Automatic annotation (TrEMBL):
Coiled coil: none annotated. It holds the Pfam family ADH_zinc_N. InterPro entries: ADH-like_C, GroES-like_sf, NAD(P)-bd_dom_sf, Trans-enoyl_RdTase-like. The lineage of its organism: Eukaryota, Fungi, Dikarya, Basidiomycota, Agaricomycotina. Residues 48-107 form the Alcohol dehydrogenase-like C-terminal domain. SUPFAM superfamilies: GroES-like (SSF50129), NAD(P)-binding Rossmann-fold domains (SSF51735). It comes from Hohenbuehelia grisea. This is Alcohol dehydrogenase-like C-terminal domain-containing protein. It comes from the Eukaryota.
């Protein structure tokens, strides 16, 4: 196992409207029972500032040639693990980004037509804590600490007015690609009574 470095690079914006600053920050030291995972992340989202603030190391313009951008970032290397929590459907391109012996884990069904070679694997996974109660309890016990230390960061949200009537407005904005880097929410109890 490689030694854990003392520090890591971090690209920050010290205050709203200022330029990026490259700094070094201490690497989190795991406590007994913790796991430290090195993450190589690529965010496919135009909300670059927000993603960089979350710790994403590379941002790919999803309106450009995504495959070409990722190929250049990898510089001939493959990705050992891909965890796909939102994408559908899984494509052959994702499989081709895997290093030999690499593994793709997906929360969506994996097509049987994918070509796997050189020990590459694709697995459907389920993160339902109600099915894995011990793991769920351990995770939920750590959540306050993870939020406090910034290990997990809350999702930004925008509330749409009008209760359930706001859903159509939100869907139209999503279809027009006017939402990026945050979730839209409605409060059902704020739905006006019909006349």
């Amino acid at each position: 196992m490689a030694a854990i470095p003392e520090t890591q690079k971090a690209l920050i914006i010290p205050e709203a409207g200022s330029q990026y600053t490259l700094i070094r920050r201490p690497v989190h030291r795991p406590s007994p029972g913790d796991v430290l995972v090195k993450i190589e992340a690529i965010g496919l989202n135009p909300a670059e500032d927000y993603l960089l603030d979350l710790g994403v190391t590379h941002v790919v313009d999803r309106n450009g040639d995504v495959k070409d951008q990722i190929t250049k970032l990898l510089n001939g290397a493959g990705i050992k693990y891909i965890y796909d929590a939102v994408h559908t459907p899984i494509s052959q391109d994702e499989i081709d980004f895997l290093a030999p012996g690499g593994r793709l884990l997906s929360v969506v069904d994996v097509p049987k037509t994918l070509r796997l070679s050189d020990g590459r694997e694709v697995t459907s996974v389920c993160g339902a804590t109600q099915l894995f109660k011990d793991t769920g309890r351990a995770l939920f016990a750590k959540l306050p600490e993870f939020f406090e230390k910034g290990i997990i960061k809350p999702t930004r949200i925008e509330k749409i007015e009008g209760g359930l009537n706001g859903i159509l407005v939100g869907l139209e904005r999503l279809e027009a690609k006017q939402v990026s880097g945050y979730k839209l929410v409605v409060v059902p109890s704020e739905t006006p009574e019909a006349n």
